[in-house]
Structure formats: C-alpha cells, structure tokens
Amino acid sequence: MTTIAVVTAGLSRPSSTRLLADKLAAAVSSALPDVEIEVLELRDLAIDVTKNMLTGFPSPVLRAAIDTVTAADGLIAVTPVFTASYSGLFKSFFDVLDQKALDGKPVLIGATGGTERHSLVLDFALRPLFAYLRAQPVATAVYAASSDWASPGDLDTRASRAGREFASRLSSAGTAAAPDSGFVPFEQLLHAGE
Amino acid sequence: MQFGIFTVGDVTTDPTTGEAPSEYERIKAMVRIALKAEEVGLDVFATGEHHNPPFVPSSPTTMLGYIAAQTSKIILSTSTTLITTNDPVKIAEDFAMLQHLADGRVDLMMGRGNTGPVYPWFGQDIRQGIPLAIENYHLLHRLWREDVVSWSGKFRTPLQEFTSTPRPLDGVPPFVWHGSIRSPEIAEQAAYYGDGFFANHIFWPKEHFQSLIGLYRERYEHYGHGKADQAIVGLGGQVFLRPKSQDAVREFRPYFDNAPVYGHGPSLEEFTEQTPLTVGSPQEVIDKTLTFREHFGDYQRQLFLIDHAGLPLKTVLDQLDLLGEHVIPVLRKELDSLRPAHVPEAPTHASRSEVLA
Predict the structure, then answer these.
(1) What is the ipTM of this complex?
(2) Residue range B139-192, pLDDT digits in tens
C-alpha cells in the first residue's frame, strides 16, 4: 500500500485547483496499483494555519493534517497562482510544517492560473520551495490555465506523464530512511569545541 | 513538592485601561508580588532575565537580594539566567553572594535566551547558543566546586589559578535547573550533571514537553544519578482564577485576547483546551494541575505565571490570595500523598548540606 497526501490550496468551490489535484491523483492511481489517497483542502485549515503561526503549535485538526502529509509516501501539491507565485496560504502551510517533514519525499507539483503566462511559477517558485525542504519534485510539473479546461486533451497528456513519473519514483523509492534524531551524547557536546 | 511563581517582568499596557506601569512601578510590583508569595505560603519566587524592552529584570541578583532582605522562607530563583550571554565567572560570583545574603535560599535556572539581537550586545552569537550553554555551564560548575580553577575554552579568556569568591555557602553550590523549550541537548546536559530540568509548559500543548522530559529522565538514569522517576523535574503553568469560573473568564479575556505571546490568535477557550492555561475557579486550577503529574510523572516543582499581559498589581495579589488559600494546600496534600517514597523532594540548601555532611 502506497499512501499519497494531496494538498490543494484552491479557495473557491468548486475550484479548478482541486480539479487539477484530482486529475493528478487519478493519473497516479492509474499508473500505480494499491494507492491510498487523502486530500487536504487548505481552505478548511486556513484559520488553523494562521493560529499556528501566532502560537507556534498546531490545533488538533491541523496536527492531523500535518501528520498525514509527514507520514505519506508521496505528496501531490497544487496551488493557484496569486500575484506571480504560489498563494500565501499554500506557502503558510509549508511554513508551519517541520523543516524535516518532507525530507526525501517524492512530490508532484501543480499550479493553476488564468493564463499560460504564469506557467513558469512551477519552476521558479514551487520547485525551489520543495528543493529547500529537501523533497524530490518529479521532472514533470503540471500547469493548468483556463484554456486547458476548454480542451483538456493536452492537459490529460501532461497529467498522465507526471502521474507515471511520480508512480515510478514512488515504486523505486523503497522505505525512506528514518530521519536522524540529531541526538548527541553529552561528552561529545562538551568536547565539540576541541 | 514546591510551589511558586515565575515572572517574565514585562511592562505591558493594561488593555482594559490603556495604561502601562512605569519601569519603577513594575519593578516595585515584582517585589511586592514576591513578598506576597511568601506571605501566602508559596515556596519559590523566580524572576526572568531580559536585556531589552519591554522587560525590566536585567539584574536578577540585585532584585533577589533586595527580596531576600525582606523575606525569611521563600526560595529565590530565576527563570531563566542567561548562561549564553553572561560571563559564567560573574554568575558564579553573583549567585554565591546572593546565597550568603539569603542564608542559602537560592537556586537558579539556566536558559539560553531566544532573542538574536541580544547576543551581540554581549559579544556573542545566537548561532553558538548550544555550545555557549555547554561550555559556560561546565566552567560555572567547576567554579563552584573547585577552589582554584585553571581553565581555557572557546568563548571567554582563559583563567589561571582563579578563585571565584565568595565560595558557595557551606561549600554547597546553588542547585541548578536547566530550562529548555525544544532542545534535547539541554535535557541531556541536565541529566549529565544530575541537575534539575524545567519545562516552561505554558504556551504549548503538553505533548511538546513530554518527549524532552522523557529524554531527561532516561538519561538521568543512564548517568547514574538515580532511577528515571527520581530525576528532578519542574513545570510551569499559567492560571487566572476567581472564586467563580465565569468571573475568571470574563475578567481575563481582554488580557488573553491582547497578550503579547498568543493574543489575536486562538480563542481563550481553544487555548485553555490545548495548552496548560487554566482560567476558572480554584477547583478547576486544582483539577488541571493534577493532570500534569499524569502526563509527566511525579515532579518536584510547580511554578505558575500569574503577572503578565498587563494584569494590574492588585489583581495579581488577589491571584496569590486565592492560590495560597484554596489551591496550593490542596495540591500539596494530593501530590505529596501520591508521590512514592523513593521519589525525592526538590533539593534545597538544607537537604544538600546534609548530603555533604
């Protein structure tokens, strides 16, 4: 069983960002047997994310969402493009995750926008974010503009390719090594400066 | 079991009046609170140390010495003493001096300080926080135990044949607690020396501190100071109480909503559910505090934060009356009766002198 967390930051209902997220999840499901997918709508967590920023700890609901993402074998992360980048809510969610939460985790990234002109947000904003978090975004990232929903053939092709790459990464990833706890015995701490 | 209060020493505008105390008023209020703590039967008063506004307590031993002269029973402590930016030689001297003046009623809590800009004001760098805490404390530990110390390290000038004076009262160094919010290195440090470990336990859910205290207990046993359940644990807590629960909630809400640390975030109800904060009747404070033992095991010291967020002095003194009359006696009786015989009390000057004798 492979577990996949889907984080989607669309704000409207229905949301084209959610549509893209579902499309990517379906592409992965058809490329990889036996996957379990859990979708997290950040809209539902927006206030909890803000509270976490103010208090330094997550509410029980946000804790559960963070645990889902941290424990998943892979992550699909999709954001609308706002003001030339990922949305503030999308970034805020990754800001309150533990820095090590995505270490080594395969990620399929996607973004939606009104026009194709913003498509490089995938590579200029999303990819560096996940590189910083030491996650492993797959080569194909998927951007969906309004025009793609009118003639979804191309979009489906890109989603399928991304889904196959992500599935192949997941099936070859094996079990991630347990993160280093960072514990250092005291004698070593005491003599570290010598 | 020891009960006490710890103060940050913030100067905060009272959101219900729009007025803030002057530094003079706040400093005198802290002293008044400490004296009242002794009057109502508390065991410990601890002051923070800060070197930036809006905080006033930059010179803890001055304040504690002044309080020592007007009290006779209460233990004077800190929450915390900055082991990173203070010279360990000066800490050794200041607290040994205080020990003599206060007839041994002194212990202290080491902390690193989390405000980056403060470090360079004292010639240090926050990125070296852990190494500073390790090296400085190791020196401090020696200065109180060896009459003549020759030493060299990474962060301060070497010492040749140095004697820190006065020597600790009766040859017994002040007991040391180490406070930490998230660093396993500090739990490990406390365990190594067999010192106490204090979890501030006010602004975060209990789970946040359970692993640190668990680690400290396990390593305390590893280093041979006793069983894990004999390690010396202190906890913070934050309370606001009135005889009637709904009065407490109504009166505290504007302070909560505007508090410097968590204000403008979660509701008071969410925060009391998710963190150790209790706003309510004495019985509610008793019930919540008794759960601490269930989460962390039998422990030795409970300190409450009662004087922050702009609460007026009179309100804080009322809190102490309520704690002293209705809460502490019940908690003391309950927790003492639950504690197994092999789990020690918090060390004091008297108990440590006996061990030495």
Answers:
(1) 0.84
(2) 999 999 999 999 999 999 999 999 999 999 999 999 999 999 889 999 999 999
- DSSP H helix total and E strand total for chain B: 13, 13
Please list every residue in chain B whose beta carbon sits closer than 8 Å to the beta carbon of residue A192. Answer: 131, 134
pTM of the model: 0.92
How far apart CA A91 and CA B166 sit, in angstroms, is 55
Contact B266 A59 (CB under 8 A): yes
CA distance from start to end of chain B = 24
d(CA A9, CA A34): 26
The CA distance from B261 to the nearest CA of chain A, in Å, is 7
Distance from the B134 Cα atom to the nearest Cα atom in chain A, whole angstroms: 6
Q: Does A57 touch chain B (CB under 8 A)?
A: yes
Domains of chain B by start residue, with CATH:
2-356 (3.20.20.30)
A55 and B264: CB-CB below 8 Å? no
Select from B137, B139, B185, B209 the residue whose CB has the most chain A CBs within 10 Å, as the one to mutate to test that interface: B185
Identity of the residue numbered B35: L
- Return the CATH architecture of domain A2-190: 3-Layer(aba) Sandwich (3.40)
